[in-house]
Amino acid sequence: MEPFTTLTSRTVVLPASDIDTDQIIPARFLTTTTRTGLGRHLFADWRYDEHGTPRPDFALNRPEAANCRILVAGRNFGCGSSREHAPWALIDYGIRAVIATCFADIFRTNALKNGLLPVVVDDGTGGWLIAHPGVEVTLDVAQSTLALPSGATVTFPLEAFARHCLLEGVDELGFLLARSAAIYAHERRE
Amino acid sequence: MAASPQTLFDKVWQRHEVSAESAATPAVLYIDVHLVHEVTSPQAFTVLRERALRVRRPDRTLATMDHSTPTHPAQVFGGAPIAIESAARQIAELEHNCAEFGIELLALRHAQRGIVHVIGPELGLSQPGQTIVCGDSHTSTHGALGALAFGIGTTEVGHVLATQCLLQRKPQTLAVNVAGSLRPGVTAKDLILAIIGKLGVSGGTGHVIEYRGATIRALDMDQRMTVCNMSIEAGARAGMIAPDETTYAYLTGRPRAPRGEAWERALEVWRALPTDPGARFDREAHLDADSVEPMITYGTNPGMVIPIGGEIPQRPGDARFGEALAYMGFTPGEPIKDRPVNVVFIGSCTNARLSDLRGAAAVLRGRHIAPGLTMLVVPGSQQVKRAAEAEGLHHVFLEAGAEWRESGCSMCLGMNGDVVGRGEYAISTSNRNFEGRQGPGARTLLASPLTAAASAVRGRVTDPRELM
Fold first, then answer.
1. Inter-chain contact B89–A31, Cβ cutoff 8 Å?
2. Of A22, A28, A176, which has the smallest distance from its Cβ to B28's Cβ?
3. Rounded Cα gap, residues B269 and B243, in angstroms
4. B334: which of A86, B145, B233, B284 is 20 to 30 A away, CA to CA?
5. Can you give the pTM of this predicted structure?
6. Of the residues B260, B293, B326, which one is the last residue of a structural domain?
7. B43 touches chain A (CB under 8 A)
């Protein structure tokens, strides 16, 4: 994984709450056996009409959404299926962080394991960001802060271990493999 | 000093901690059973190859194929190629991966193949007190046996393959206490839909649910699995029910359950698992089963649910709610009963076990489905299929005009080509009514097998009690 230290970007906003992973990446695209190339199917049924033509009024299709790397959404983003194809599709499309007032558990876990930053904010901050699409904000992983255009910063929760993995660009598998002796000891106790 | 009282969850968690969590690191949690399927595993095997790793405990790993598999007999058993080429490749890749890494696979034509959450309990592999994971959010189903069972992503599938462990923060606990008795025509599906309606689709986020109370104790194992299955639809990664005599009777004699002395030793451990009197939950909720009606969803998430005799609710000023109703083609204030239906699907890890098929068949016996309606009955496993056929249930479905297929996830998520058409209404015994879940533009109404069968007969949303 690439290290994730800071990110400054304009936002693209999907105001809906409870955006499920079937919307993020519909199941018919899950017959792939690789992690790459899913970005073109991100939000497929919202982005394209039934003939495959982009819907011009969908937020990601508007010209001002080009190169936005931060997605703002309503509460409970990523609910439903455990498919890791959801964060893979977001990352492949170019999104590196999602801001919402809460995330579904499995999506949040999957996102962090792929260097996609889930940023939980309070209702006031979330509501303001939804009402002001396209503003430029800065995320700082080391400080766990989100800097708003007003100059104000809000902090977001990020566990120490997840922060370490993001900043160093390391994954968790190495950590688990290094616990091999403790795992053997546990198996012997059983 | 006596140990402080613990919940069922606390006990299972504690016994599987390789190391406890600290401020700096999550807990390392040992996994007893890892279930693998074709859709969420290929990229995990790729990581093993990239890092030159082996599967640590193939003996604790079981693979099957269910999500993208065909349900047409000819595509399963020969005579026709698998219609979706990418699905066929995915199936072949799982076969290759299991052979290379030494994992037991219940492959496409295996007599014990089926939906991963149906076969785990059916084989007696899923047992009380275990930790069970799978790259699928409905792994919560196995909690019906008193296991801690939850869905994981593909990266975590790789972690479990390589180390038999996961890094986890300890979740909170939520007790859902259900008192009273379910009335005739009201099923476990209606109960869990009512619970989700009460908690909301994110009400259980960060929590493991324990379903408790006299109503839950009175449910059989199939019904308990239906309840635990949909825990994730309330946001909870896991749902659990304490093991009891019903659980032990269910497991007795199953091929992978312990036998002889091992069974006696296991029983002793299992009997100590239920939540101790006085144990504290982080949150509690209560529901009265007597007041639960047959439930049906009207919107685009499982929390948008009403009694079948109810009207489509209003939420003025809620734009997303309005969009959901527009997608469904419903208007606030209108009754949901008697709305026309195009497709009925009886299947999925929620409602495709033998008792579900028996319930649907009881409604359909001697009746025919409405003209123009399509009805698909997809058993949860090949064993369920054979058991249903031994009772003649397939004749009931076929004579009623339904299709009788090979097992798999099928129309629950439409990956295998079993889809609902654009704009069509489907009554489905599955677990998710998300936009496009059953096919682009499909409109899903979640309900029990009884409601689904009754609605198939009338071609309209029907209270099953009218046909019983």
1. yes
2. A176
3. 11
4. B233
5. 0.98
6. B293
7. yes
- Cβ of A79 within 8 Å of Cβ of B26? The answer is no
Query: Is A21 inside a domain boundary?
Result: yes
Predicted pLDDT at B319:
87
Cα B199 from Cα B196, distance rounded (Å): 5
Distance from the A28 Cα atom to the nearest Cα atom in chain B, whole angstroms = 5
Q: Which residues, in sequence order, are CB contacts of B318 under 8 Å at separation 6+?
A: none
pLDDT higher than threshold 70 for residue B148: yes
Q: Which of B22, B167, B438 to mutate to test the interface with A (most CBs of A within 10 A)?
A: B167
DSSP per residue, B66-83: -SS---SHHHHHSSS--S
DSSP run (H or E) holding A13: strand A6-14
Is pLDDT at B1 greater than 70 in this prediction?
A: no
CA–CA distance, B452 with B468 (Å, rounded to integer) = 13
Residues 128-187 of A with CB under 8 A from B: 159-161, 171-173, 175-177, 179-180, 182-183, 185-187
pLDDT digits (tens, 9 = 90+) for B5-19: 999 999 999 999 999
* Domain final residue, candidates B246, B265, B293: B293
User: How many separate domains does chain A show?
Assistant: 1
In this structure, what DSSP letter does residue B30 have?
A: E
Integer Cα distance of B344 and A162 in angstroms: 44
Q: Cα B95–B98–B104 angle (5° rounding)?
A: 105
Rounded Cα distance, B425 and B435, in Å: 12
Residue A92 to residues A121, A160, B86: CA-CA distances in angstroms? 24, 26, 20
Amino acid (1-letter code) at residue B449: P
Closest-CA residue of chain B to A23: B435
Please state, in angstroms and rounded to a whole number, the distance separating the CA atoms of residues B76 and B385. Answer: 14
A31/B434 touch (CB, cutoff 8 Å), yes or no = no
What's the alpha-carbon Rg for chain A, to the nearest Å?
A: 18
Q: What is the pLDDT of residue B3?
A: 77
**Distance between CA atoms of B230 and B138, rounded to whole angstroms?**
7
Q: Report how far residue B456's alpha carbon sits from residue B372's, in angstroms, rounded to the nearest whole number.
A: 10
Question: What's the mean per-residue pLDDT of chain B?
Answer: 97
Answer for the pair B215, B13: CB distance below 8 angstroms, yes or no: no
CATH number, residue A38: 3.20.19.10
Taking an 8 Å cut-off on Cβ atoms, the answer to whether B43 and A83 are in contact is no
Are B343 and B441 part of one and the same domain? yes
- Residue B2 has a pLDDT of 57
CB of A22 within 8 Å of any CB in chain B? Answer: yes
Q: What ipTM was estimated for this complex?
A: 0.97
